[in-house]
Amino acid sequence: MLQQSPSTAAQVINSEDPDPPEASPAELEARSRAWQVSIDPATLWPGLDPGALPPAAAAIERSVAAILSGGRSALGSARGSDERALGIAALLSGTGPLLGYWVEAGLLDVSEPVARVLARHLSHSRRRMQRMTQGVMPVLSTLVAAGMPPAIIKGFDTAHRYFPEPGARPLSDVDAVIRADQVARAETILAAAGFTGDPIRERPYKRKWHPPGADGRIRSLELWHAEGPWQLDLHDAASFGELMRFGIRLDHPLDLSVSWVALGVPLRAAAPPLMITMLAAHLSGELYVMRLLRLVELVLVIRQERAQGRLDWSAVEDLLDRTGARRFVYPAFALVERLAPGTVDPGLLSGTRQASTRLGRQVVAGLTPASPILQERVSLAQRLMFASGPAELLRRLLAMVGPVPGSARTNLQVYHSRLRRVLTARVTWPVSRARSAVRRPGG
Questions:
Q1: Which of 71, 68, 73 is nearest to 108 (CA)?
Q2: Domain that holds residue 52
Q3: pLDDT tens by residue, 55-75
Q4: What are phi and psi of 214, to 5 degrees?
């Protein structure tokens, strides 16, 4: 973990300045809905020049790469006139709190205006993580006491075990995996603790559970707000994301887990091969969501496991083959190498490249770890990059406009929304036009 004393230039980030005023939750929700129709960044961020975001993302990427290589870096103009663009790019890339941590640690030099923006990112993320932890740990402890110790996967785990501090890794949910025969009892425990389950239950089993008092309101479109919504996602497998529709099977993560005592609660966490496989598959399947942060996450996991002598690349390869994930993880590993050369085993990188599709390699060739940063159109190339034959291609095309689990009314709305994107030319083929999506911030 990175540990340095704060420099004089970084002292401003420790100030307790009040947050600048933002629009009301109702106005923020209206902006979010309007953006889903217009796909215009100005709808989400009035007054922002969208043309300022790509250079801001590129600058963030350079700073992240420099610090991961063991050096220091500077970010932004000396005048600090680019603080809003840098703040939005930090939000979209997921790196705002981590950049704020690096400023505080004296590893990243920025102007005072940028320091204040990143200080807000870090402060909110710290308070958000504390709030989530206080909300979820009691119910996780109850599951343990009932003989159902869950395996915690993805962000909540990596935030506590691999990042320099938990608040440096923003997240919107806690993913917990239990055995399929424990689902009914676990749901009873969650309901008794005041959590409310979504009506939709996915297959393999996944259900979102909202903590007591959750109202789902957006608190900010500029950062991961401390009071923004969060939920517990309960799974009976590690089958999540679009790639699972192509046949990746991670049905028994508890068999590939290790003990993890989190804040005194004896939980389970993914063993290194499963952790790397999950993170790489998830990142590859959602290249348009917080790509830079997820790449940093993989780098930190690989480096720490290797440093502690727990990383066996042959075990990772074996799991990739057993789960059918080999041909899907090349985007993640290729982009990790661009960000932090020497991180991924060369043989594994070569093997996953050979297993990937030609279209997939073309898509990856057009990406950097942080750019493109915005999605104005849905790229067909990116959506179809994992299809290995005509049958998979057809299934993927149908899935793009087909219904999702839910009510008939919801299905109709989703169907019309997806079809409208096709009819209004918001779906494009050229790889060069693929953009990373704007995920609605964590509130």
A1: 73
A2: 18-433
A3: 999 999 999 999 999 999 999
A4: -65, 135
